[in-house]
Specification:
By secondary structure, this protein is α/β, with parallel strands linked by helices. It has a single domain, classed as 3-Layer(aba) Sandwich (Rossmann fold), CATH 3.40.50. The protein contains nine helices and seven strands, in the order βαβαβαβαβαβαβααα. The protein has a seven-stranded parallel sheet with strand order 3-2-4-1-5-6-7, with helices on both faces.
């Protein structure tokens, strides 16, 4: 590995679990990779992920750089160069949480990341804008002729009785996306917002096991480069015909 890595968490739809997943991913990776420099960069003005994680993180590992074109935000160029600098550090792994709404130019930051994690519930209210977002990002990748960032869809807040993801996968047909293992709706997660202690507070729950599975999935497929190799092979194959 010659440069650091970064994971962008985004969706135009609000309230789908971007900040929650960012916070748990930060905790998962710092436990899984104690020798790496795991950091969280919150670019949302609301600073939800920053506030969740700050009490349990080492100073400087969690930063809040709101991107906005208003006076209270940093310019995109600044945040872009901050992330690029972080990526020059070989062992770094940065989780980037973003706000809801059309990403404006924030997608440029996504383009330098290894993957975009896109959480969504299975309700139409969430699915419709999510699919629109994915199409847009997929198109941008195609225009830039790049196989990264990988688009990873994370079904979130799935009621335990409803594990049928076929509606979701049908709607994703034809898009270059990967469906990650789903996360259950756990009321404990909602209550954690005020006093976040990380994954250990969810130990013993279904959500905990699912989250570990999600973290392992990202590690094994995205961070290892396995997914890139698969897509690269496919690209070569399609060029041959
Ligand atoms: N798996 C889950 N189980 C139960 N509650 C969840 C789960 N995931 C997220 N939530 C809850 O859903 C709400 C919205 O989550 P969160 O703030 O992470 O979404 P967001 O996408 O970051 O929202 P925004 O677009 O406003 O930034 C929070 O109250 C959070 O605790
Ligand atoms: Mg958020």
């Amino acid at each position: 590995m010659d440069q650091g890595q970064s994971i962008f968490v985004g969706n135009i739809k609000g309230g789908v679990g971007k900040s929650t997943i960012s916070a748990f991913l930060f905790d998962y990776f710092r436990i899984r990779f104690p020798k790496r420099s795991v950091q969280l960069l919150d670019t949302d003005r609301q600073g939800t992920a920053f506030e969740l994680v700050e009490p349990l993180a080492k100073e400087g590992d969690v930063r809040h750089f709101p991107v906005s074109d208003r006076f209270d935000g940093l310019s995109l160029v600044t945040v872009d160069s901050i992330l690029r600098r972080m990526r020059t550090e070989e062992t770094s792994l940065t989780i980037v949480d973003t706000g809801a709404g059309w990403p404006g130019n924030v997608w440029q930051i996504a383009m330098i990341c290894e993957c975009i994690i896109v959480p969504t519930s299975l309700s139409w209210a969430d699915l419709r804008p999510t699919i629109e977002f994915i199409r847009e990002m997929d198109e941008r990748k195609e225009n830039n002729v790049t196989i990264t960032p990988h688009l990873i869809i994370v079904p979130n807040r799935i009621p335990p009785g409803q594990r049928d993801l076929s509606k979701l996968s049908e709607n994703l047909e034809g898009l270059n996306v990967v469906l990650a293992p789903p996360l259950s709706d756990l009321s404990l997660v909602r209550q954690m917002s005020s006093n976040f202690q990380g994954l250990k507070d969810a130990e013993g729950t279904r959500f905990y096991n699912e989250f570990i599975r999600l973290g392992d999935f990202i590690t094994d497929y995205v961070l290892s480069g396995k997914l890139s190799a698969i897509f690269q092979d496919e690209l070569e194959e399609s060029k041959r015909f």
